Automatic annotation (TrEMBL):
It is an enzyme of class 1 (oxidoreductase). Belongs to the proline oxidase family. It comes from Varanus komodoensis. PANTHER family: PROLINE DEHYDROGENASE 1, MITOCHONDRIAL, PROLINE OXIDASE. The keyword Mitochondrion applies. Pfam families: Pro_dh (PF01619). Residues 104-545 form the Proline dehydrogenase domain. This is Proline dehydrogenase.
Amino acid sequence: AAACCQKKAGEVLGRGPPPPLPPPPAVDFSDAREAFRSKSSAELARGLLVLRLCAIGPLVERAEQLMHLSQKLLGRRLFEALMKLTFYGQFVAGEDQEAIKPLIQHNRAYGVGSVLDYSVEEDLTTEEAEKKEMDSCTSAFEKETGKQREKRYSVHRKFGDRRDGVISARTYFYADEAKCDRHMETFLKCIEASGGSSEDGFSAIKLTALGRPQFLLQFSEVLVKWGRFFHLLAAEQGKAGLAALETRLEVEKLQEALAKLGIATKAESQHWFTGEKLGVSGTVDLLDWNSLIDARTEISKLLLVPNMKTGQLEPLLAHFTEEEEKQMKRMLQRMDVLAKKAVRTGVRLMVDAEQTYFQPAISRLTLEMQRKFNREKLRAPPTCHRPGSLHQNAYDNVTVDVELSRREGWHFGAKLVRGAYMEQERSRAAEVGYEDPINATYEHTSEMYHRCLDYILEEIRHSRRANVMVASHNKDTVEFTLRRMASLGLHPAENKVYFGQLLGMCDQITFPLGQAGFPVYKYVPYGPVNEVLPYLARRAQENKGFLARAKEEQDLLWAELKRRFCSGTLLSAPGLP
Ligand SMILES: Cc1cc2nc3c(=O)[nH]c(=O)nc-3n(C[C@H](O)[C@H](O)[C@H](O)COP(=O)(O)OP(=O)(O)OC[C@H]3O[C@@H](n4cnc5c(N)ncnc54)[C@H](O)[C@@H]3O)c2cc1C
């Protein structure tokens, strides 16, 4: 969109095409002076102290209990002061929208934007969390009949506390509709704060905060079963094992198969595959197929799929009570309210990736928002960023969604993350008994990350419409992106490729990028001290988990403190932007 604006301006003034952009500067991640130019020496010392504390295993493992104990022993005020000098000061921007403004503006001056993330979490016991999860993930129909969904998409008490083993994300539990409304109000305030504090802000939202998780489970199961059925039909046509977008079913044979299975007569399925639902040369691909369960059509209510185990046909959608229908609609309405507010305030929404059993629904609902709101052409569009968590089928999902955006003419946006739920997901799959959804090794995860990223970068080069946030602390991944941007001719000033790191982590990656003119953002958590303690405990654990990276950061902090001491600038204010 930026390139398109420039061309038009040049043409109107009759000055021909704009001059080419100057080559972007090289970025050096090992230059401590440049990395910490925006920081006071006190901030560097705090960073060093916090990283050192994070390396003490027993302290980190019991971080939350220790924080609660110190709160009792020291009293509220002293405890808050201590936290502000250490963990809270390092990882959280402030108590509310007003308090965080100076930090946001300071970072902005050094080229670093903000993704605001209100980080207050309920302090539930494991038993309370499990009970809430069991209640909110079971439908009235299931309670009545005792019928269960597929294991992966059913709730399991042992894994009901979704906070278990998660270090990079906040967790919401459903209580009632009023609480979801309160979450929506919080997100609205967050969007307002993003709009008020910068011109190019993002606001993070989480779909499990906006409605009953039962719907996300049910909808995920529907999407996955429908996709699986497509691949089953493809195998019957001798097209097993092809990449998602290369699998095309012949309509004649498809209709025959559907009739043979008793799903729809040829006459009934005739109108399914006509006009826009019929792809290249009379074939049906996964996108055409998925459009049959489009939320905007009624057809999904009629769809049947074969149960692989029993061989029986089953309705794709489960029965909903009237109240459940209303709850589902309210969840969609809340998303709509948030997206409209984001458009009005010029803020882009960033939807968090969550567990694999919720993720198909989250991705699909985000895609619906992108379809509706990412159509604007002449300025960077308020974008709903689709979460891309790096699970085994991530590449297929990304390619299919990009292709849909091409066909329908909207702007594709994605935040790519390696995923925060690995351990929890692996033990759930092993214990409950389904295939591990996580890539087999760290190397596979990284390979998948780079493959998905490369595909989106190619798309940006081709159409200049898509955009992506590389949300990672991994230096190799950031360097890989910079290399690919250079070789594909993607200039940072086009604002198509963003980088993202968490506040208080890996400043040596964030600030050199920002100072060199690359669009880079900090995830900026905020909230009152004693309400973000669970978040702080997880930050400590994450830093302990990545010892090599933390060591590199400590070395750089130490080097810069020594340099300032030797040059007599230890007490000077941070350098100019
Ligand atoms: C701006 C930002 C936004 C984020 N938003 C989200 C979000 O919405 N949802 C979410 O889930 N997370 C989110 N995260 C967290 C993210 O998923 C990662 O957990 C975290 O950032 C570490 O990944 P990395 O690329 O920074 O580091 P790396 O050290 O390169 O990668 C660590 C990650 O690799 C994967 N991994 C590690 N070991 C293995 C193994 N043996 N086999 C397979 N995979 C392995 C895991 O996913 C682990 O978290 C976000 C992070 C950032 C910076």
